Amino acid sequence: MLNHQKQSDLFEVIAEVNRRNIIDLLRVRPRSVGELVESSHLSQPGVSKHLRILREAGLVTVSKESQKNIYHLRPEPLMAIDHWLEPYRQYWSQWLDSLEQFLDDEEKS
């Protein structure tokens, strides 16, 4: 389970759109910095900066393949966020069920 500070840090890290885009790319498969630069339209220094932040937050790991650093997404921090969100999903589900019922009733009127 995430402690409050770690949870807050993770939310700050993934709040940045370029980092979320990198996470989305790594969700599909591990990638090198060069592949991330091509896919993200960021500069190499920009991608490297975001990867460093993601690595420090524990969201990615890096391995060496020949001369390339390959970045891999770590699911554990995202699973912890998913676990934290679970009670809110129940709330959203109840709210959406109520909205659906209201709209159905309005349509019948």
TrEMBL record:
Domain called HTH arsR-type: residue spans: 1-93
Lineage start: Bacteria, Bacillati, Bacillota, Bacilli, Bacillales
Keyword check for Transcription regulation: yes
Alphabetical keyword list: DNA-binding, Transcription, Transcription regulation
Superkingdom: Bacteria
Keyword Magnesium carried by entry: no
Name of the protein in question: ArsR/SmtB family transcription factor
NCBIfam families tied to this protein: HTH_metalloreg (NF033788)
